[in-house]
Structures are given as C-alpha cells and as structure tokens.
C-alpha cells in the first residue's frame, strides 16, 4: 500500500506562502527537433523518469502545514510494530521507529502542532517550479547549458560528441553519440535523485518512438488514437480517406442552444484531437483548428465533422513522422488559402519546417485580417513563417548545427516578387508594416524565397480540405508514412 502526503495548496496565500508558480516544460517542436537531429547525426535516444520529483524542490518561503488527520493513529501502529490497516506484526526500519518516537513526543508536548516544511511537497502551488529549479541546478553543475529559445532543452559538447537533454516535469529525454558519457550522466543524476532508467526511448509523453535498421527515427501515436476511438465509441467506424470533407462549410448556429450542445462531447473530442495535431499529426492540424472555431456554439453537423476526423484516424492510426539522415539543411513550405472562410472571408495560413526528411514545426491558422488579394494572403503567410524560421535557426545554431539561411518555398510568384522588390505599389501600400520585416530578413540573408509550383506544394494540407489522392500525396511529400 502506497501513501502520498499532499498539502492543501488551495489554502496558500499569494505573496506570503508562494510567489511564482509557473513551471516550464519542453515544447513539442523541441522534442521533434531532438528526434530529427538524432536521426541526422546518428544519436541514441534514452528516457529517464524521476521518482516523486516534486519532493526534491527547495522551498524559498516559510510554509507551515497542519498535521495529517490520521497521523496519530499511524504513529501508534508504527510504535507497536503493527501493519497499518492490520493487526499483523511487522519489523520496521530503525529510522522509521526513531522518527515515529520523536514525532509522538512532540505531539504529546504540544496541543496544536503544525509542521514547517523543509522541502517541497505535492499540492503546493510552487512545487513544480521548485523542482524545475533543482533539476536545472543539477544539469548546469555537470556542464549543460539551457537553450535561450527553450529553457527545458539542455546541450553539452565534448569534442566531436554532443548530448541533448529535454525535460518535461519528471521525464528526461537524452540524446547522444557517446554511450560512456551517457552512462556517466545517468549515474550523476541517479546519485542526486531517485531515477528510473527506461533505457532506449520507446513510449514517452503519449508518443511512441522507434528506430529501424537504417537508423531512422519514427514518432507516432497509435496507442493514443486507439484509446481515443474507444473513448468516443468509434472502434468499429468506417474509415474516411481524409480528415475533412473538401466541400464542408460549417456555420455557427444563430443562437447558442445549450440543450443541443449537451448531447455531444464536442469540446472534449476537439481538445483530444488537438494533442495529436500539435504532437505528431500535421495531417489533421487544419481540420482540428477549423473545428475549434465552434467550441462555444455547435450542433450535430459540427459533431459529425469532428467524428469524421476519428474515422480518418481509424484508417491510418500508425501514421507519423519519419526522420532520417538526408544531409539537407532546414527548409520550409508555406501556403495560404485566400478568403477561404465563407463567413468573414479571412484567409488561412499554413507552413511546415522540414529537417531530416520530416516536419519539426508546423502551423495552420486563420489570418487575423482580411487579405484583399491572394498575393497579400501569401505575403502574410510568408511573414508568419519567417518568424518561425528565425526561432528555429537560432535553436540549431545554439545546439551547434550551422543554420545561416532558411529556404522558404511558396507557390505565389507575386508574393515572392513583392518581398524581393521594395518599389512602391499602390495595391499593397495598406499591408501592415509588421509583415514587411520579411524583406529585411531576406536582404540580410537569413531567409531565401524560392518558387514551388502549386501541384507540388505539400503545405496545401495545412490550409484546406483536399481530395483523397491529393491529401495523401501531400503527406508523402511532408515525410509522413505508416510505421
């Protein structure tokens, strides 16, 4: 029988019992970058888990806690060498017995005892943050440095060897090409914290990882998809060829009908699908983002459209990202669907950044303003992709992988010429100045724009619903395939 002592964090007072509470976790894109780099450089990926991680944090505030209600009875059992919940005798460790005696003596001497917490405890508002700080201190002490772009990714180098560590609360993903160094780091971590060494990574954060004989790295979520189908009663559904019908045009009902909305767990389904969309399935990202626009007002038509995504996943549950050694630099495909929204006539942007043969970052979203032409819509999409290009290139450079210029492929020659030519044009003078920074980045050599014909543009899958053959062609060109 295991017991976990939990503090009532709901009774803590801000500014007195705690201050900061935010605790960072590794970004999804950073995990994919780690996997892609591992495939490109031939790194082994391992997984470690910290046991009861939150108990390792150092408290920066004085925090007092009432004694657990059953503590007195538990101490009596210990001092009488009895099993808790039983009259059976048991031989206990001397330290446990001595601690019980000390606690019993203090409780007898005090009518209203409270305890001062010396370390962090589950339930405290600041426990997550304090654990993160403790782990960071440890990693810094053994030679790792955090990336400025993601404080949960750490890198260290020894001559031609490299090690990357990504942390998500108590899960650590380690990638390196030096097994001796890896074992040394594992031992240092295990000496500091109680750790579980899971060996080569296979299942972490709801994602399945695998390697083949050619050293390719696979990331997929078939287990999560199977549970999702079971949860929503779709295990025996008929598979669909695409996640969204090419002709679907959903509208918000004229008024919110809560009695109708209660009949369908629409928000739960869209939220569950969103996890797939941001983790390993860019093929459903556009569909899920489109459906999320109706989270506060939906009916049976929206529910049917959401279930279609499940039907699509039923057909290809083991599709995922496949990273392999290509020798190619980071590049991106960018697209826009002009005035695609039939209600507000706003356009959709989509981009994917490819490294080691598959996407490491992608986005599909509705643009904030109405574009007056297809050229303007593509221009805005390229601007959004440029920001991501700068972010990703900085990550690669800080890791030690040279990334001086990122190539962006787009299928609108008008938008490319507009960026490359600063001459005044009356038809584009209204475009928000924030989008024009892409011109500066192009002139500085940080990005390069190239034309890719529409027929070969894989980012189409991130901006609109497609026919079955076109949809799956885009997936192949993105580097997605069945495991």
UniProtKB/TrEMBL annotation:
One of its GO terms (biological process) is DNA biosynthetic process. It holds the Pfam family RVT_2. Residues 2-69, 110-244 form the Reverse transcriptase Ty1/copia-type domain. This is Reverse transcriptase Ty1/copia-type domain-containing protein. The lineage of its organism: Eukaryota, Metazoa, Ecdysozoa, Arthropoda, Hexapoda.
């Amino acid at each position: 029988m295991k017991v976990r002592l939990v503090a009532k964090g709901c009774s803590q007072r801000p500014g007195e019992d705690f201050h900061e509470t935010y605790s960072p976790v590794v970004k999804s894109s950073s995990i994919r970058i780690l996997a892609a780099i591992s495939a490109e450089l031939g790194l082994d990926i391992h997984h470690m888990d910290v046991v009861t991680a939150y108990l390792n944090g150092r408290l920066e505030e004085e925090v007092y806690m009432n004694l657990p209600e059953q503590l007195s009875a538990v101490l009596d059992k210990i001092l009488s060498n009895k099993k808790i919940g039983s009259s059976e005798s048991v031989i206990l460790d001397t330290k446990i017995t001595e601690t019980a005696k000390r606690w019993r003596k203090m409780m007898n001497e005090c009518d209203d005892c409270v305890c001062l917490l010396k370390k962090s405890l589950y339930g405290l508002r600041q426990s997550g943050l304090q654990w993160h700080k403790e782990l960071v201190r440890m990693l810094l002490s053994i030679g790792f440095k955090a990336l400025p772009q993601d404080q949960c990714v750490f890198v260290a180098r020894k001559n031609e060897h490299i090690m990357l560590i990504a942390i998500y609360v108590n899960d650590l993903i380690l990638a390196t090409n030096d097994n001796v160094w890896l074992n040394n780091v594992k031992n240092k971590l295990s000496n500091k914290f109680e750790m579980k060494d899971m060996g080569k990574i296979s299942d972490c954060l709801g994602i399945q990882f695998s390697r083949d004989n050619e050293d390719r790295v696979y990331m997929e979520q078939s287990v999560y998809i199977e549970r999702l189908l079971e949860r929503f009663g779709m295990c025996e559904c008929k598979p669909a060829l695409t996640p969204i019908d090419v002709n679907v045009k959903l509208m918000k009902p004229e008024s919110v009908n809560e009695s109708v909305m209660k009949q369908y767990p629409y928000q739960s389904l869209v939220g569950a699908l969103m996890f797939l969309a941001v983790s390993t399935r860019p093929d459903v990202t556009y569909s899920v983002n489109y459906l999320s626009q109706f989270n506060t007002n939906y009916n049976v038509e929206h529910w049917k459209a959401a279930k279609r995504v499940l039907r699509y996943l039923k057909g290809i549950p083991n599709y995922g990202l496949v990273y392999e050694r290509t020798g190619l630099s980071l590049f991106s495909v960018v697209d826009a669907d002009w005035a695609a929204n039939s209600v507000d006539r706003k356009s959709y942007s989509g981009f994917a950044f490819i490294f080691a043969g598959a996407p490491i970052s992608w986005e599909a979203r509705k643009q904030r303003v109405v574009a007056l032409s297809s050229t303007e819509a593509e221009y805005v999409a390229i601007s959004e992709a440029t920001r991501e290009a700068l972010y990703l290139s900085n990550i690669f450079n800080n890791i030690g992988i040279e990334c001086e210029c990122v190539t962006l492929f787009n299928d609108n020659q008008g938008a490319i010429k507009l960026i490359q030519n600063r001459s005044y044009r009356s038809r584009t003078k209204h475009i928000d100045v924030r989008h024009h920074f892409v011109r500066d980045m192009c002139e500085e050599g940080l990005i390069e724009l190239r034309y890719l014909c529409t027929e070969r543009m894989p980012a189409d899958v991130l901006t609109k619903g497609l026919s079955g053959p076109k949809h799956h062609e885009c997936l192949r060109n993105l580097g997605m395939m069945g495991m």
